[in-house]
Amino acid sequence: MAGVGEIHLRRDETPVLSVRNLVVQHRLRRRSFVEAVSGVSFDVLHGETLALVGESGSGKSSTARAVIQLPPPTGGEVALFGRELQGVSPEELRQLRRKLQIIVQDPVGALNPLKRVRQLAAEGLEVWSDRDPEKVDAMLTAVGLDPEIYAARRRRELSGGQCQRLCIARALLIGPEMLICDEPVSALDVSIQAQIVELLRELQGSMGLSMLFISHDLRIVKSIASRVLVLYMGRVCEVGDADALYSSPTHPYTKLLIEAVEGGAIEADPGEIPSALEPPSGCRFRTRCPAADARCVAEVPQLRQVGDDHFVACHHFPDEAR
Amino acid sequence: MASTTTLAENVRTRPGLAWTSIRTWIGVAETALGVALDYVAISVIDRSESAPLRVVFVLAGLVLARRGIGDLVCGLAKREVDVGLWLSVGWLVALVVAATLAGLLPFSDYIDPSKSLTVAQFMTPNLFSAHPLGTDGLSLDLLARCVYGARVSILTSALAVVLSVAVGVPIGALAALRGRAFDHVVNILTDSMLSVPALVLLIALATIAGRPKSVAAAVLEDGIGLAIVTLPTVLRLARSFTSKLISEEFVFVSRALGATNTRIVLHDLTPNVLLSVSSYALVLAAVLIVAEGSLSFLGLGLQPPQPTWGNMMAQAGISDLSLHPFAILVPGTFMFLTVFSLNRVGERARSAFAAGGSVVSVT
Amino acid sequence: MIRYITFRLMFAIPVLFLVSVGTFLLVYLVPGNPVDHIIGPNSTHAQYLQIQRQLGLDRPVLVRYWEWLSKVLQGNLGINLVPPVESVRTRIIQALPVNIELTIIALVLGLVVSIPLAVFSAYKENSVFDRLIGVGTIAAISIPTFLLALVLVLLVAIDWHLFPIGQWVRPSGGWLTNLRYALLPSIVLAIGEAAIFTRLLRSELLETLNEDYILAARAKGMSSLHILFREALRPSSFSLVTLSGLSIGRLIGGSIIAEQVFSLPGIGSIIVNAAQQSDYPLVQGGVLVVAVVYVTSSLIVDVVHGVIDPRVRRRHG
Ligand code: SF4
């Protein structure tokens, strides 16, 4: 099996979102593929925020897009409230997606340049033939865009942060229960980032949202996520309760990321990332791992439980001795 | 992008007050001198003087006056203004207004030579006479003929642009959306049309349509002919803009919000593609005005005595060139200024409104 | 490589086919009856039928297209309607050298003028020179060919007596004389081309200048002008090939006007005069030849481009 195990999935409750053994391949030319995601599994419980962390090229965004089926994944299952999203008719999928919304990295590009703020915010509502101007204005106010000032503006008259607030309002207006945030602040000024994250956290609390929060920046993740999943080249390295993961990072890659943040860098030095066209055999991190040995070349590591809610996919950490 | 450039232009250096007021006066002086120079060159220097001298004088006067207006406006506005752009806009607006109201303007006769028997032929332009731009070989007023000629040019090219956009955009967009087979077919069709030089195609079409009998017939026939010739360009524009737009993030988000294909086409693609293609409208119109002019210059468009810029120049012909250059230069200047202005303003519209800046060149 | 060439050839075939259908339909679509144009109003019905049969107008369109096409493929373009009645082929063969000469001179002049202008304009980006080039080229593109032709005639030929005008002397009548008559029309055509070349080349040079290897060359201390000519112009020269190919089509269109102004017996005058006299077979033949020349030349240009620049091949492979 290509995956790295499902031991970390929680079977006692029905999760809001459950993803099993997700595989995403991108077609390059006629016969060649890149595998962006190779068997990733996770689940998100009600009101929980799961962060997907990894460098660029780790498959975070591909995962996000596969989850909302735009485009659908090459393999694996995605279920929303226990309802499988594979093999349903396009119309059903459209209906189901109402509960599952996404915030993307480029807030400016995510807005139709010809529409004005109020129209943009109401886009989702219109799709579901709900035209309630009061709802729209209330939501705009809630995300911090005073309708009296901003209603008639177009995207070029807004700042990046304001665009992202608008995108959040638009997504939330149609009443999703699960919100995917794909690098929601990485395109914004550092000074704005914290405000947007804070806004997302508030709204999550008041609306009872579950969130999948994707970021390459561990410091931002720290302020919002309750659980963290570390991805490297399309595979899970480590997953668990955020506090546990921060206090005792176990996988060499997690350690590298956390050290980099503590050293003041936003991202770890990427070193020599192998080509995604020919990923390394066995553990994909082995080309950068100080502890790599023959076993790491031969065998794909499986997730093992190392703490209460803490799982690691590595042959040598924590020590085999136990 | 757009907002940053306008910002940069607005916040350009603002020099001290003294300089701006001096600059205003320099502008006034330059303009006055330039106009005077032109006046002398056109009206006072005797016709027997050598023409090159006059041309040099006229050009020098024009350049000076243009500089003067630039300095004058910048001095008054106390900042750098793209005067050339505004002059171009001004010319186009004035031309359209004059052409629309031509019937109401106090023109001398422009079409019936029997009414201008008392007027001299080939009068030299004199801004303070009844024939400000002179008369042609039939003693008809050149200014009036140019303004009526503008009607034909403007209406024909506008009709052609509207028609080609109305037909080309849906097909081009479909080619981008439907992919492969349809795209190939459209591609081969456009290539076939582009493989005949536009003017040759126009002549062929004019042969089919025959000589137009009235202004309305000319506008309709030439408009349709020009629309056919422009169609491949519009198709390609629409195709490339559509394929650029469907990969835009806002289309992705619309889909995530649950928008149907119909809604995406109506709300996201159509308005944006139309705006992008329309931003090319002025540049296209410039090409079309030349094409219409060429056609009537070749005697295949509207026939005299009805005036078009092209047939006015053809009528004056090479034989009159050295003796009565104004009969050709006046309509020629109208045409040149119009095409130049359209190109100038069009380039600007294109860089401001085309999705992802300008990509396709119109030739 | 072979795959690319076949791909390109396969693409040219349907285009040529459509062009042939289009030109064939040209005659078919003409309102009124071509027979009426030939015979006088006083002719009998029998005469009418005879001419109709002569022209083959009594048979179905598809048959007529097929017969027309097979004749055309053998080089037979039929005869024209308006006297002097001649073979269309002879008329066109007589006219083509004029266009070939004008096109070659104009193309060469255009390139010779535009390359240094573009390089210098890119070298001194945003300088006064650069901006003058910017406005000047728009102006040159905005001048309709016939206006430019007339103004040049007025200045250069009539006032300064630099060139003789008003006729065409075949190279057999002395190549120097021939050149003197050909030069002014060629200059008229070259000005527009030079303006377009300069604009495109300049923007391309500026783009190349920002690429890494140029920046590296700069860092090594090579002088900018040297870099422009030696390093940056080389990748651009690929697109010069494409440009020249494209401009062949424009030059044929433009030469129609120039031929008219300078009274030159080129293919443009043939088409225009035939169109004015509703001499359909002649229009048809002229349009067909022009289209075939254009399709073939762009085919050759694309293939040559593909041979020198592997990137092009890959894009289609
Ligand atoms: S499995 Fe081996 S290579 Fe991979 S992280 Fe663990 S020690 Fe390093």
Question: Which short descriptors sum up this protein?
Answer:
heterotrimer; B: 363 residues; mainly alpha; MetI-like fold; 2 domains; 13 helices; disordered N terminus; disordered C terminus; C: 317 residues; 79% helix; globular; binds iron/sulfur cluster
Write the layout of secondary structure elements.
The complex is a heterotrimer of chains A (322), B (363) and C (317).
Chain A: E1 17-27, E2 33-44, E3 49-53, H1 60-67, E4 75-80, E5 83-84, H2 90-97, E6 100-103, H3 117-127, H4 133-142, H5 147-150, H6 160-173, E7 178-182, H7 190-207, E8 210-215, H8 218-224, E9 227-232, E10 235-241, H9 242-247, H10 252-262, H11 294-298, E11 304-307, E12 310-312
Parallel strand pairs in A: 3-8, 3-9, 6-7, 7-8
Antiparallel strand pairs in A: 1-2, 1-4, 4-5, 9-10, 10-12, 11-12
Helix pairs in contact in A: 3-6, 4-6, 6-7
Chain B: H1 2-10, H2 17-44, H3 51-77, H4 83-100, H5 142-178, H6 180-194, H7 198-209, H8 215-246, H9 249-256, H10 261-278, H11 281-297, H12 309-316, H13 325-353
Helix pairs in contact in B: 2-3, 4-5, 4-13, 5-6, 5-8, 5-11, 5-13, 6-8, 7-8, 8-10, 9-10, 11-12, 11-13, 12-13
Chain C: H1 2-29, H2 34-38, H3 45-55, H4 61-73, H5 88-123, H6 128-142, H7 145-159, H8 175-209, H9 212-219, H10 224-262, H11 267-276, H12 280-308, H13 310-316
Helix pairs in contact in C: 1-4, 1-12, 5-6, 5-8, 5-10, 6-8, 7-8, 7-10, 8-10, 10-11, 10-12, 11-12, 12-13
Iron/sulfur cluster binds at residues 252, 283, 285-286, 289, 291-292, 296, 301, 314-317 of chain A.
